[in-house]
Amino acid sequence: MSKILCIDFGTKRIGLSIPIRSIAFGLETLETVDYNHLIATIDKYIKNKYIDTIVIGHPLPLQSENDKYLYPIEKDILKFINFLKKKYPKLIIKRIDERFSSKIANYFLINSFFNKKKRKKKKILDQISAILLLQDFINNSYS
User: How many CA atoms lie within 13 A of 7 on its CB side?
Assistant: First the structure.
């Protein structure tokens, strides 16, 4: 299995996850506004964990006939992907449909064992979204 880092890219925060023996685990949540810290953290994971593949969520429209429609965040995601491709030319970058991932993560959080105080922390939600995306990728790529 390749070494994967999954990114749930949001306008305010980015959730990160990695697989351990085919099970996705959350790493951390980063603020999108601190771009230098974001790049330094991803650089650290690529170098220290020997990441060779990055999976990034792809926000797609609900109906397939709207395939040409791009969500505003997609421009930021594509810019980020181009940056990664230039900095790490050997890195494999995969996209995965992220429709409903935030809603599923929120549902999980509401119905989980987390206390109400922790449930309100958006950082947990972003990590759960990254975990769900990565687990979906693992299940569909290696089954």
Answer: 28
Longest CA span, the chain: 43
Q: Per residue in 66-103, pLDDT tens?
A: 556 667 788 899 999 999 999 999 999 999 887 666 66
Backbone phi and psi for residue 113, each to the nearest 5 degrees, phi listed first: -85, -5
Q: Token match 């809603």: residue?
A: 103
- Please tell me whether the overall predicted TM-score, pTM, comes out greater than 0.70 for this model: yes
Q: Tens digit of pLDDT for each residue in 47-60?
A: 888 899 999 988 87
Give the helix/strand (H/E) hosting 82. helix 72-87
DSSP state of 66: G
The C-alpha atoms of residue 26 and residue 19 are separated, in whole angstroms, by: 9
